[in-house]
Amino acid sequence: MAAERSHEPATAATHSQPRHDLHVHANHDVWTWAVAVAVAAELRRELTTQSRVRLLLSGGITPAPVYRALSKAPLDWDRVNVGLVDERWLQPQDLDSNAHLVRTNLLQHQAAAAHFEPMTRAGRSIEEVIAGANAFAKVQACVAVLGMGEDGHIASLFPGMGDLERVLASRNDYVAVDATGCPGARQWPRRISLTPRGMARIPARLLLIQGARKRDVLMQALADGNPARWPVLTALDSIHGTPLQVHWCA
Ligand SMILES: O=C(O)[C@H](O)[C@@H](O)[C@H](O)[C@H](O)COP(=O)(O)O
């Protein structure tokens, strides 16, 4: 079933190109497979011209079915590096880590051949983890799967975070963040996150959201236009001029 697709201006500012495309899917299953097919198509296209490609994945509940569907895609997975958009300050084997989510949902079936780049490792300080993440990021990712919280956060960029200004202005791809006091960060305030600069370098950025509440939050953010209040807006920026692909179902 074809998704309803619309171009919408992102903010009150004038832009020569649409900054996001909204794909409205009929139901959860259609949403899941449409997103998995879209990610696989980006990887497949990139694999025709590159010897290796990188895919970045988010945590959260929303993308897990997509990762399971994507794991069955017939691709040259042994030429795909899988990294993380963000990570909680947990060891990769921790059940609440984003690494665990990716391992258990994506790295199976065909995708078992992919090369995974977990961020954290036993005995590594957070500074070493950030240095490692920035070293991985020297190889440009071609696709990022992003999620959004009901507070308008994206990756681990939370509204109201103490050092959000510094993070939004960072010239690095990854930074350590302290989201103490931000309810959206739940019990994991210490995190590693892709920065707006890191996101803007990725040509294909897919934002996965479901439900009326998240749609309304996104619309409110777009109408307001302030990325410090709504960090999700930072995903609209692209050095390639490519619009954010928003995939939504009720
Ligand atoms: O580690 C994390 O928490 C994430 O990467 C985060 O940015 C996530 O994408 C959103 O919080 C949406 O999460 P849900 O899909 O669970 O709503």
Automatic annotation (TrEMBL):
Q: Name one GO molecular function term.
A: 6-phosphogluconolactonase activity
Any Pfam family from its record, for instance, is Glucosamine_iso
Q: Where is this region: Disordered?
A: 1-20
* Protein keywords: Hydrolase
| Family indicated by similarity | Belongs to the glucosamine/galactosamine-6-phosphate isomerase family. 6-phosphogluconolactonase subfamily.
Biological or metabolic pathway of the protein? Carbohydrate degradation; pentose phosphate pathway; D-ribulose 5-phosphate from D-glucose 6-phosphate (oxidative stage): step 2/3
The catalytic activity of this protein is classed by the Enzyme Commission as 3.1.1.31
Q: Which gene encodes it?
A: pgl
Question: For this UniProt entry, which residues form the secretion signal?
Answer: none
* Protein's organism: Lysobacter arenosi
Q: What is this protein called?
A: 6-phosphogluconolactonase
Q: What does this protein do?
A: Hydrolysis of 6-phosphogluconolactone to 6-phosphogluconate.
